[in-house]
Amino acid sequence: MTDFLKIVRDRRSANKFIENINIPRKDFHEIFEELTLAPSAFNLQHARYYVIEDKELTDKVYEASFKQYKIKTASATIVITGDKKAHLNASEIYEGSKMLGILDKTEYNMMLDIINNLYEGWGESFQHDEAIRNASLSAMLFMLLAKNKGWDTCPMIYFEKDKIRELLNISDNEVPVLMVTMGKMDKSSSKIRGARKTTSEFVKFY
Ligand SMILES: Cc1cc2nc3c(=O)[nH]c(=O)nc-3n(C[C@H](O)[C@H](O)[C@H](O)COP(=O)(O)O)c2cc1C
After folding, report:
1. Which candidate in 2, 122, 147, 187 could, as Cys together with 126 as Cys, close a disulfide (CB 3.0–4.6 Å)?
2. In whole angstroms, what is the distance from residue 15 CA to residue 144 CA?
């Protein structure tokens, strides 16, 4: 089995974590460094990460997440948001490619026009979908990169969005997409993996 397959197969959503374990900042830095390679539409890099380690804040996040006990035991809880206005930073992102000569001025202007027409033309609901789509892809890669470093995670949606927004001072331009608890899984409380569909139930070839 390749290392990659081992990571995919070993990743489980932790039910509970072993308490009082710190995640070295170095591990976070290395995970986030690799995470910059995640794909995103037009390379707009919509995802934002809020890493919560502070005990007092964790308690508030726990309250705002319907008291899901794993938050209390996790080494960190990470809130991942998607920026609905990521397209407004396109010039900043593409400026680098222009300076390096990867894009000439005409191509650069064309790219910005395409992005602007799409995100403004298709409007709010597209911007919202894009925030969720791109942050979700990033979050999956984050969980695999964490597992690669020996850290377990659990993706979570069962939280009060507005309370989390307020606690972390998240701007209205960002959609809270997922919460990910992270730490060392307490295996004594892990369950057998839930049944999966067979591939023929969710794949169609044409
Ligand atoms: C979008 C999403 C939201 C989830 N929300 C929660 C949650 O709020 N609380 C929780 O304990 N698990 C949550 N989970 C974890 C799932 O229950 C878990 O992924 C699923 O049962 C499959 O188990 P496995 O990840 O161990 O293979 C969520 C998973 C996803 C992908």
Report:
1. 122
2. 17
Which atom of ligand 1 has the smallest separation from the CA of 159?
8
Residue whose Cα lies nearest atom 30 of ligand 1: it is 155
pTM of the model: 0.96
Ligand 1 pocket, Cβ-based, cut-off 6 angstroms: 12-13, 68, 154-158, 193-194
What pLDDT, on the 0 to 100 scale, is given for residue 116? 97
pLDDT one-digit tens code per residue, 177-193? 999 999 999 999 888 99
CATH number at residue 47: 3.40.109.10
Phi, psi of 170 (to 5 degrees): -85, 130
* Residue at 99 is within a domain: no
- Measure 13 CA to ligand 1 centroid, in angstroms: 6
Q: Which amino acid is at 21?
A: I
